[in-house]
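Quick one, tokens below. Sequence please?
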């Protein structure tokens, strides 16, 4: 059923903008330990993330819900899930963390997305045969 010109002119214009469609954001991160040594297991890795949040943002930051979805101890790579409103807090806390067990370390954020599926592959590392 088509609208007449008069009905089309009377229809109100409504603009909708969604800032963040997703409830969560996902980050692929890597912990870099330049001097080698003991590698953290998944529980120690989660504790390191929470302590980074506590150090920068206090107890409120430590209460931020962060989930470790996957963790590869061999490469020290993990996929983290955080509520979208806490993305900047988590990212800044990981970036500014400098020590793990009195040894220098650094977190590198490799990818971030509001969609978990987007972290499944990386076109920059794609090898075509």
């Amino acid at each position: 059923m088509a609208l007449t010109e008069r009905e089309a002119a009377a229809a109100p214009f409504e603009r909708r903008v969604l800032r963040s469609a997703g409830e969560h954001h996902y980050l692929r991160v890597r912990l870099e330990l330049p001097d080698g040594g003991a590698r953290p297991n998944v529980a120690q890795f989660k504790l390191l993330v929470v302590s980074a949040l506590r150090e920068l943002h206090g107890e409120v930051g430590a209460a931020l819900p962060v989930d470790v979805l996957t963790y590869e101890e061999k490469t020290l790579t993990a996929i983290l899930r955080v509520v979208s409103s806490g993305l900047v807090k988590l990212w800044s806390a990981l970036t500014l963390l400098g020590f793990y067990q009195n040894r220098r370390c650094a977190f590198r954020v490799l990818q971030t997305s509001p969609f978990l599926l987007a972290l499944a592959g990386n076109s920059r590392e794609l090898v075509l045969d």
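The mean pLDDT is 86. The helical segments are 5-10, 42-62, 87-96.
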